[in-house]
Structure formats: structure tokens, C-alpha cells
Amino acid sequence: MSVFLLQAGPALTTVADTAATAATAAAGADTDLSLIDLILKGGWIMLPIFALLIVSIYIIAERYLTIRSAGGNPESFMAGIRSLMVKGDLPGAKLYCAQNPSPLARMVEKGLRRIGLPITEIEASVENVGKIEIARLEKNISILGIIAGIAPMLGFVGTIIGVIKIFYAISSSGEFGITQIAGGLYTKMVTSAAGLIVGIIAHIGYHWLSIMVERMVFRMENSAIEFMDILQDN
Predict the structure, then answer these.
(1) How crowded is residue 46: how many other Cβ atoms within 10 Å of its Cβ?
(2) What are phi and psi of 140, to 5 degrees?
(3) How far apart are CA 25 and CA 85, in angstroms?
(4) By the number of CB atoms within 10 A of the CB, which of 11, 36, 208, 233 ranks highest?
């Protein structure tokens, strides 16, 4: 008997090693989830979260390009306006503004069209145009603030749904094990993480764009003051 065991030992060891290798490979295959598979495990609540992500990215990209293109070079523009105004070339100054599609140019053009009126009325018209231009720059930025609050709340809704799924699975099977809680845990963790990520992206985008607008407003105010000084000097 001992001789038989000695002869069969290597074969049994080989079989055991093969089985262990196969089990390890199967376990690795089960845990190798793609990003899409992981997202799908979050359930239907991932659809509105994904929609908020698309809206956030669109607003951030669109507003960034708009604000950046509206910035221009205020120092160079105001130097050109001053040069034309000193020469008394009012039509040339208006044409120069028309050739510069920027909020600052539209403000100055409005003031040029009001030349001849009292200085207070010119200043008021320039300020009104400035307010309109600022409102255009801030368009849709507030939506990012709303998304920053809604996205994590949707993730929390997914967490509640996951808990409900866990308790339902336990009550249906009458057992408490990994099989019963796995689906609900996936829903909880995936939706919570997705909601937080989208909320962080929207929050960062909101404050980043707000800072860009504030810088733009500061430049426009300085240029408006410079324009009024040019009018008073001439």
C-alpha cells in the first residue's frame, strides 16, 4: 500500500496543482471587470448621472472657449482707441470697434455713439452694455453649480437602491452571504463614486469659470474707466 501511495503521489500532486491553477485563473477572470461592466452594475441611476457629466463637460468647454476668445488684448485695443480719439477720427474709432468682436469693443462703441450727450449719460450707457456683456459671459455657468449639488444626491439615491436590493435578496433567499449582497453593494459603491466624481467636476468647473469671468470683468472696468478719461481729455 505504501508503495502504491509513493507511486501515485507525484500524479496526485500534479492534478492538485492543475486544479489550483484553473481555480486561480477562473477567479482572476471573474474579478477582471471592464469599466463599462462596472458602470452597468450601477443600474439605471447611472443614466442621469452620465447625462449630467455630458452637460458639465459641454458647458465647461463651451464657456472656456467663449470667455477666452472674448478676452483679447485690452491694452492694445485701448491704445488704438486713444490714438484715433486724439486724432479726432471718430468714424475710424467706430470702425475699429466694429472690427473687434469683443465685449470691450461693444462697450466702447456704445460710448462712441453717445458722444455729444452729457458725460454721465455716456457713462451710464457704457455700464449698461457692460452688464449685458457680463451676463452673456456668465451664461449657463450657474447650471454647473446646480449639477455639483444634484450629482452626489443621485449617487445617494443609488446607495439607497443598493441597500434595498440587498435586503430584498436576503429576504427572498432566506440566506445572508456574498451572493445576496454583491449586487446591492455594486449599485451602492458605483453610483456613489460616479455621483461624487461628476459633482467634483462640475464644482471645479463652476469656480474655475467664475474666476475667469471675474478677471474679465476687472479688465472691462479698467478699460471703461480709461475710455471715460479719454473722453474727458478730448
Answers:
(1) 22
(2) 70, -5
(3) 80
(4) 208
Q: What separation in angstroms does the CA of 111 have from each of 35, 214, 225? A: 56, 22, 12
- Long-range pairs, 57-66, Cβ under 8 A, ≥24: 57/201, 59/140, 59/141, 59/143, 59/144, 59/205, 60/144, 60/201, 60/205, 60/208, 60/209, 62/140, 63/137, 63/139, 63/140, 63/141, 63/209, 64/209, 64/212, 66/137
Count Cβ atoms below 10 Å from residue 100 Cβ, excluding itself.
Answer: 18
Find out whether 41 and 186 touch, Cβ atoms under 8 Å: yes
C-alpha cell of residue 153:
444626491
Tens digits of pLDDT across the chain (234 residues): 333 333 434 443 443 343 344 334 333 434 555 656 666 666 677 888 899 999 999 999 999 999 888 877 788 888 888 888 888 888 888 888 888 888 888 888 888 888 888 888 888 888 888 888 889 888 899 999 999 999 998 888 777 776 676 666 666 666 655 555 555 566 677 788 888 999 999 999 999 999 999 998 898 888 888 888 887 776
In single-letter form, the type of residue at position 7 comes to Q
- 63: closest CA among 165, 148, 144? 144
Contact 22, 170 (CB under 8 A): no
CB 107 within 8 A of CB 129: yes
Return left, alpha or beta for 73; rule: phi > 0 is left, psi -120 to 50 is alpha, else beta: beta
